[in-house]
Amino acid sequence: MPETAYKSGFAALIGRPNAGKSTLLNALVGEHIAAVSSKPQTTRTSIKGIITRPEGQIVFVDTPGIHKPGYTLNRRMMGLVADALAQVDIVLLMHDVTTSFGSGDRFTLDLVKQAAKPSFLLLNKIDRLKDKSALLPIIDHYRKEYPFVEIIPVSALKRENLDRMVDLLIVHLPEGERLYDSEIFTDEIERNIAAELVREKILELTQQELPFATAVRTEKWEEVDDATEIHCVIYVERNSQKPIIIGRQGQMLKEIGTRARRDIEKMLGRHVRLNLFVRVQDEWRNDPRLLDELGIQEK
Ligand SMILES: Nc1nc2c(ncn2[C@@H]2O[C@H](COP(=O)(O)OP(=O)(O)OP(=O)(O)O)[C@@H](O)[C@H]2O)c(=O)[nH]1
Ligand SMILES: [Mg+2]
Fold it and tell me: Of 35, 145, 218, 282, most Cβ neighbours within 10 A?
């Protein structure tokens, strides 16, 4: 019998919007599978990223940042967080060390306490700390709140301390067989990742309410001779938002398309012809059917 058995299991990335959960997911799998932006509420679904090591396999579950739900969309997003908390083996609570502990962090921490699972505290964005001793009061505060199995300062962006985090995670995972083939790094399908990459560019390039009022869906995906032809529909809520997405002489839509196409080509390793269409869909954030179609399902 081998000295240590193979380990496998699920770890949920939980935290406030903007903490850096999706940045960490992308860094861990080494691929751009989750949208990242400086705007809050970037992630709307739970996306799995898988890493396989000789000693174990970890399935990371990225989740939407925890916030007060207003629309059906946001209620479903919070349902996905509750679901992830209930289903995984280990919880990774991520806190952005450049922000101070507020009521949203209190609410988030209470959810982690209720889940009562083995939990790691990840203190993210340490690259932005001039003085690392600023971590000590944060660690102290969290340690008094919950018996975290590990408290690990990391930088998802600079990939600091991630190997150590993975090593420690494997130690705490249950014994078990591989859950996915070792080459698989996500269970997300390419057409959904493409739509997310388009949405990411919209978040990058637009301001105010537009990032929240926009959704993207891939409607056509076809392999033609030398390229993949992709049609994505961008949903906005009001007629007045359409010209903002399109921009003067179509410049904005063109820029969104160019940036997204580059990323999609990187993912597919193939030429892409990306066509974007803008559609006004009143109140889509409260439209159960469209939310289903967007993969943001009721739980
Ligand atoms: N300096 C620094 N910035 C980071 C780090 N990790 C993430 N960021 C930035 O923080 C912002 C938010 O990152 P995301 O990964 O989208 O955050 P998230 O927690 O997934 O956010 P939601 O999906 O909205 O819940 C982006 O601008 C990232 O570039 C880090 O380690 N250091
Ligand atoms: Mg995210």
Answer: 35
Structure tokens at 211: 């990032």
Q: Which of 76, 23, 11, 17 is nearest to 285 (CA)?
A: 76
pLDDT of residue 1: 55
pLDDT of residue 297: 87
Q: What is the pTM of this model?
A: 0.97
State if residue 108 touches ligand 1 by the CB under 6 angstroms criterion: no
Domains in the chain, CATH or no CATH each = 7-172 (3.40.50.300), 190-293 (3.30.300.20)
3-state secondary structure of 29: helix
3-class secondary-structure state, position 9: strand
Residues (pLDDT < 50) of the chain are none
Where helices occur in the chain by DSSP H, the ranges are: 21-29, 72-87, 103-115, 135-145, 162-172, 190-205, 210-213, 242-246, 251-268, 288-293
pLDDT score, position 2: 55
CB within 8 Å of 116: residues ≥ 6 apart: none
Q: Are 264 and 197 in contact (CB under 8 A)?
A: yes
**Most ligand 1 atoms within 8 A of CB, residue of 36, 92, 204 to mutate:** 36
| pLDDT score for 3 | 65
Distances (CA, A) of 284 to 141, 214, 216, 234, 256: 40, 9, 11, 12, 21
CA of 96 to the centre of ligand 1 (A): 9
